[in-house]
Protein backbone atom coordinates (compact mmCIF):
# COMPACT_ATOMS: atom_id res chain seq x y z
CA UNK A 1 0.00 0.00 0.00
CA UNK A 2 1.25 3.49 -0.84
CA UNK A 3 0.08 7.08 -0.75
CA UNK A 4 -2.01 6.59 -3.88
CA UNK A 5 -4.17 4.14 -1.91
CA UNK A 6 -4.73 6.56 0.99
CA UNK A 7 -8.17 7.91 0.07
CA UNK A 8 -11.19 6.31 1.69
CA UNK A 9 -14.51 7.47 3.06
CA UNK A 10 -14.46 5.82 6.47
CA UNK A 11 -15.02 8.00 9.54
CA UNK A 12 -12.23 10.47 10.30
CA UNK A 13 -10.75 10.19 13.78
CA UNK A 14 -10.27 13.92 14.41
CA UNK A 15 -12.89 16.27 13.00
CA UNK A 16 -11.73 19.87 12.37
CA UNK A 17 -14.65 21.11 14.47
CA UNK A 18 -13.04 19.47 17.51
CA UNK A 19 -10.14 21.91 17.18
CA UNK A 20 -11.70 24.96 15.52
CA UNK A 21 -14.89 26.37 16.97
CA UNK A 22 -17.10 28.82 15.03
CA UNK A 23 -15.63 32.33 15.04
CA UNK A 24 -18.13 35.09 15.67
CA UNK A 25 -17.88 37.74 12.97
CA UNK A 26 -15.80 35.65 10.58
CA UNK A 27 -16.55 36.88 7.04
CA UNK A 28 -17.70 34.41 4.39
CA UNK A 29 -14.68 35.21 2.20
CA UNK A 30 -11.17 34.91 3.62
CA UNK A 31 -7.97 36.02 1.90
CA UNK A 32 -4.96 33.82 2.57
CA UNK A 33 -1.43 35.02 1.95
CA UNK A 34 1.94 33.30 2.31
CA UNK A 35 3.76 36.59 2.82
CA UNK A 36 4.29 38.64 5.99
CA UNK A 37 4.81 41.67 3.75
CA UNK A 38 1.30 41.30 2.32
CA UNK A 39 -0.13 41.12 5.83
CA UNK A 40 1.85 44.22 6.80
CA UNK A 41 0.45 46.02 3.75
CA UNK A 42 -3.08 45.12 4.85
CA UNK A 43 -2.39 46.32 8.40
CA UNK A 44 -1.13 49.68 7.10
CA UNK A 45 -4.17 50.17 4.90
CA UNK A 46 -7.05 48.78 6.97
CA UNK A 47 -8.19 48.55 10.53
CA UNK A 48 -7.71 44.85 11.17
CA UNK A 49 -9.82 43.28 13.90
CA UNK A 50 -8.33 40.19 15.50
CA UNK A 51 -10.92 37.41 15.53
CA UNK A 52 -8.99 34.30 16.45
CA UNK A 53 -5.54 32.78 16.70
CA UNK A 54 -4.82 29.46 15.03
CA UNK A 55 -1.65 27.55 15.76
CA UNK A 56 0.75 25.74 13.44
CA UNK A 57 4.18 25.74 15.14
CA UNK A 58 3.60 29.48 15.54
CA UNK A 59 0.57 31.70 16.14
CA UNK A 60 -1.57 32.43 13.08
CA UNK A 61 -3.84 35.44 13.72
CA UNK A 62 -7.11 35.65 11.79
CA UNK A 63 -8.34 39.18 11.10
CA UNK A 64 -11.46 40.84 9.73
CA UNK A 65 -11.63 44.15 7.87
CA UNK A 66 -13.83 46.03 5.43
CA UNK A 67 -13.13 46.80 1.79
CA UNK A 68 -15.56 48.71 -0.43
CA UNK A 69 -18.40 47.88 1.90
CA UNK A 70 -17.58 44.17 2.03
CA UNK A 71 -16.38 42.35 5.12
CA UNK A 72 -13.38 40.13 4.43
CA UNK A 73 -11.07 37.98 6.49
CA UNK A 74 -7.32 37.52 6.13
CA UNK A 75 -4.55 35.41 7.61
CA UNK A 76 -1.01 34.36 6.70
CA UNK A 77 -0.73 30.62 6.24
CA UNK A 78 2.25 28.26 6.40
CA UNK A 79 4.33 27.06 3.48
CA UNK A 80 3.70 23.52 2.27
CA UNK A 81 0.54 21.69 1.34
CA UNK A 82 0.08 19.77 4.58
CA UNK A 83 0.28 22.76 6.94
CA UNK A 84 -1.68 25.10 4.67
CA UNK A 85 -4.39 22.47 4.20
CA UNK A 86 -4.69 21.89 7.95
CA UNK A 87 -5.24 25.59 8.60
CA UNK A 88 -7.73 25.73 5.73
CA UNK A 89 -9.68 22.90 7.37
CA UNK A 90 -9.84 24.94 10.57
CA UNK A 91 -10.94 28.18 8.89
CA UNK A 92 -13.75 26.30 7.15
CA UNK A 93 -14.74 24.66 10.44
CA UNK A 94 -14.78 28.16 11.96
CA UNK A 95 -17.40 29.27 9.44
CA UNK A 96 -15.71 30.58 6.29
CA UNK A 97 -17.46 29.73 3.02
CA UNK A 98 -14.68 30.48 0.55
CA UNK A 99 -10.94 31.10 0.58
CA UNK A 100 -8.78 33.02 -1.86
CA UNK A 101 -5.09 32.06 -1.76
CA UNK A 102 -2.36 34.07 -3.44
CA UNK A 103 1.38 33.62 -3.37
CA UNK A 104 4.55 33.36 -5.38
CA UNK A 105 5.64 30.57 -7.70
CA UNK A 106 8.47 29.50 -9.92
CA UNK A 107 7.85 29.54 -13.65
CA UNK A 108 8.65 26.74 -16.08
CA UNK A 109 8.43 29.09 -19.05
CA UNK A 110 10.89 31.99 -19.15
CA UNK A 111 8.48 34.02 -21.30
CA UNK A 112 6.32 34.57 -18.22
CA UNK A 113 7.71 37.79 -16.81
CA UNK A 114 8.64 38.22 -13.17
CA UNK A 115 5.65 39.54 -11.25
CA UNK A 116 3.14 38.36 -13.84
CA UNK A 117 -0.10 36.75 -12.60
CA UNK A 118 -1.08 33.14 -13.21
CA UNK A 119 -4.42 31.43 -12.56
CA UNK A 120 -3.86 27.66 -12.23
CA UNK A 121 -6.37 25.45 -14.03
CA UNK A 122 -5.15 22.07 -12.71
CA UNK A 123 -2.46 20.95 -10.27
CA UNK A 124 -0.07 18.01 -10.60
CA UNK A 125 -0.21 16.04 -7.36
CA UNK A 126 3.46 15.66 -6.47
CA UNK A 127 2.66 15.95 -2.74
CA UNK A 128 0.92 13.81 -0.15
CA UNK A 129 -2.03 15.66 1.33
CA UNK A 130 -4.34 15.59 -1.69
CA UNK A 131 -4.30 11.78 -1.76
CA UNK A 132 -6.15 11.73 1.56
CA UNK A 133 -8.93 13.93 0.14
CA UNK A 134 -9.46 12.65 -3.39
CA UNK A 135 -8.99 9.40 -5.32
CA UNK A 136 -5.57 9.00 -6.91
CA UNK A 137 -4.94 10.79 -10.20
CA UNK A 138 -2.07 12.68 -11.77
CA UNK A 139 -3.86 16.03 -11.66
CA UNK A 140 -6.64 17.65 -9.70
CA UNK A 141 -8.82 20.01 -11.71
CA UNK A 142 -9.56 23.51 -10.44
CA UNK A 143 -13.19 24.33 -11.28
CA UNK A 144 -12.93 27.79 -9.66
CA UNK A 145 -10.27 28.89 -12.16
CA UNK A 146 -12.77 30.18 -14.73
CA UNK A 147 -14.53 32.42 -12.20
CA UNK A 148 -11.23 33.76 -10.88
CA UNK A 149 -9.96 34.42 -14.39
CA UNK A 150 -13.19 36.31 -15.11
CA UNK A 151 -12.50 38.46 -12.04
CA UNK A 152 -9.06 39.28 -13.46
CA UNK A 153 -10.68 40.23 -16.75
CA UNK A 154 -13.22 42.42 -14.95
CA UNK A 155 -10.42 44.51 -13.46
CA UNK A 156 -8.42 44.44 -16.71
CA UNK A 157 -5.51 42.65 -15.05
CA UNK A 158 -3.28 40.70 -17.48
CA UNK A 159 -2.76 37.07 -16.51
CA UNK A 160 -2.22 33.64 -18.00
CA UNK A 161 -3.90 30.34 -17.25
CA UNK A 162 -2.23 26.95 -17.13
CA UNK A 163 -1.42 23.87 -15.12
CA UNK A 164 0.79 24.02 -12.05
CA UNK A 165 3.15 21.49 -10.52
CA UNK A 166 2.63 21.12 -6.76
CA UNK A 167 5.58 19.49 -5.03
CA UNK A 168 6.65 18.93 -1.42
CA UNK A 169 10.34 18.82 -2.25
CA UNK A 170 11.72 22.13 -3.51
CA UNK A 171 15.27 20.77 -3.58
CA UNK A 172 14.25 17.70 -5.60
CA UNK A 173 12.77 19.46 -8.59
CA UNK A 174 14.87 17.58 -11.13
CA UNK A 175 15.45 18.27 -14.81
CA UNK A 176 13.62 15.10 -15.83
CA UNK A 177 10.59 15.99 -13.72
CA UNK A 178 10.57 19.53 -15.07
CA UNK A 179 10.63 18.24 -18.65
CA UNK A 180 7.70 15.90 -17.98
CA UNK A 181 5.60 18.58 -16.31
CA UNK A 182 6.29 21.05 -19.10
CA UNK A 183 5.29 18.47 -21.69
CA UNK A 184 1.98 18.07 -19.87
CA UNK A 185 1.31 21.80 -19.93
CA UNK A 186 2.56 22.95 -16.52
CA UNK A 187 3.80 26.53 -16.52
CA UNK A 188 4.46 27.00 -12.79
CA UNK A 189 5.73 25.13 -9.74
CA UNK A 190 4.67 25.72 -6.12
CA UNK A 191 4.02 23.77 -2.91
CA UNK A 192 0.32 24.00 -1.98
CA UNK A 193 -2.20 24.22 -4.80
CA UNK A 194 -3.11 20.53 -5.21
CA UNK A 195 -3.52 20.09 -1.46
CA UNK A 196 -5.71 23.16 -1.05
CA UNK A 197 -7.96 22.32 -3.99
CA UNK A 198 -8.42 18.77 -2.72
CA UNK A 199 -9.52 20.04 0.70
CA UNK A 200 -11.96 22.50 -0.83
CA UNK A 201 -13.53 19.93 -3.11
CA UNK A 202 -13.78 17.33 -0.34
CA UNK A 203 -15.41 19.82 2.05
CA UNK A 204 -17.55 21.30 -0.74
CA UNK A 205 -16.17 24.78 -0.18
CA UNK A 206 -14.89 27.21 -2.81
CA UNK A 207 -11.11 27.57 -2.94
CA UNK A 208 -9.47 30.01 -5.34
CA UNK A 209 -5.80 30.58 -5.99
CA UNK A 210 -3.71 32.87 -8.12
CA UNK A 211 0.06 33.02 -8.30
CA UNK A 212 2.60 35.69 -9.11
CA UNK A 213 5.84 34.76 -10.84
CA UNK A 214 9.14 35.04 -8.98
CA UNK A 215 11.97 32.64 -9.83
CA UNK A 216 12.50 30.82 -13.12
CA UNK A 217 13.46 27.15 -13.64
CA UNK A 218 13.47 27.45 -17.44
CA UNK A 219 17.17 28.24 -17.82
CA UNK A 220 20.56 26.55 -17.78
CA UNK A 221 20.82 27.42 -14.08
CA UNK A 222 18.09 28.32 -11.62
CA UNK A 223 17.33 32.04 -11.84
CA UNK A 224 15.95 33.63 -8.65
CA UNK A 225 15.02 36.76 -10.61
CA UNK A 226 13.02 39.00 -8.21
CA UNK A 227 12.84 36.56 -5.29
CA UNK A 228 13.58 38.43 -2.06
CA UNK A 229 14.18 41.67 -3.90
CA UNK A 230 10.71 43.18 -4.25
CA UNK A 231 9.79 46.51 -2.65
CA UNK A 232 6.80 46.93 -0.35
CA UNK A 233 4.84 48.45 -3.22
CA UNK A 234 4.89 45.11 -5.06
CA UNK A 235 3.17 43.37 -2.15
CA UNK A 236 0.67 46.20 -1.93
CA UNK A 237 -0.11 45.53 -5.58
CA UNK A 238 -0.63 41.82 -4.99
CA UNK A 239 -2.99 42.68 -2.15
CA UNK A 240 -4.92 45.08 -4.39
CA UNK A 241 -5.52 42.33 -6.94
CA UNK A 242 -6.60 39.89 -4.23
CA UNK A 243 -9.05 42.42 -2.80
CA UNK A 244 -10.67 43.12 -6.15
CA UNK A 245 -10.97 39.41 -6.88
CA UNK A 246 -12.35 38.67 -3.41
CA UNK A 247 -15.31 41.01 -3.83
CA UNK A 248 -16.16 39.42 -7.19
CA UNK A 249 -16.00 35.67 -6.56
CA UNK A 250 -19.20 34.08 -5.31
CA UNK A 251 -18.60 30.31 -5.33
Overview of this protein structure:
The chain is an alpha/beta fold. It has helices at 36-45, 81-93, 145-154, 175-183, 193-203, 232-246, and strands at residues 29-33, 49-55, 59-67, 70-76, 98-107, 117-126, 139-141, 159-167, 186-190, 206-216. It has a 5-stranded mixed barrel, surrounded by 5 helices. Helix 4 (175-183) links the parallel strand 8 (159-167) and strand 9 (186-190). Helix 1 (36-45) packs across helix 6 and helix 2 (81-93) packs parallel to helix 5. The model has no long low-confidence stretch (mean pLDDT 96).
Which properties best describe this structure?
Rossmann fold, 27% helix, 251 residues, five-stranded mixed barrel, 10 strands
In total, how many domains does the architecture comprise? Answer: 1
Order of helices and strands: EHEEEHEEEHEHEHEH
Distance between the termini: 36 Å
CATH classification class: Alpha Beta
The CATH topology name reads: Rossmann fold
Molecular shape: globular
Regions with pLDDT < 50 over 5+ consecutive residues? none
Largest sheet: 5 strands, mixed, barrel
Question: Secondary-structure map with pairings?
Answer:
Elements: E1 29-33, H1 36-45, E2 49-55, E3 59-67, E4 70-76, H2 81-93, E5 98-107, E6 117-126, E7 139-141, H3 145-154, E8 159-167, H4 175-183, E9 186-190, H5 193-203, E10 206-216, H6 232-246
Parallel strand pairs: 1-4, 1-5, 5-10, 6-8, 8-9
Antiparallel strand pairs: 2-3, 3-4, 5-9, 6-7, 6-10
Helix pairs in contact: 1-6, 2-5
Short précis:
The chain is an alpha/beta fold and 251 residues long.
Amino acid sequence: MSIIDAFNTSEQIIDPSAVARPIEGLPDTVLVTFSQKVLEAAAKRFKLTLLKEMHCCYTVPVYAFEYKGRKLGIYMTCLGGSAAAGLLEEIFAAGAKRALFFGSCGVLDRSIAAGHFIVPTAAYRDEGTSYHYAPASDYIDIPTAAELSAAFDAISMPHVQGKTWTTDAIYRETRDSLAKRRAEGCITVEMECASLMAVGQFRKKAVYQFLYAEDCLDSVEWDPRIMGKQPATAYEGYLDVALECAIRVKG
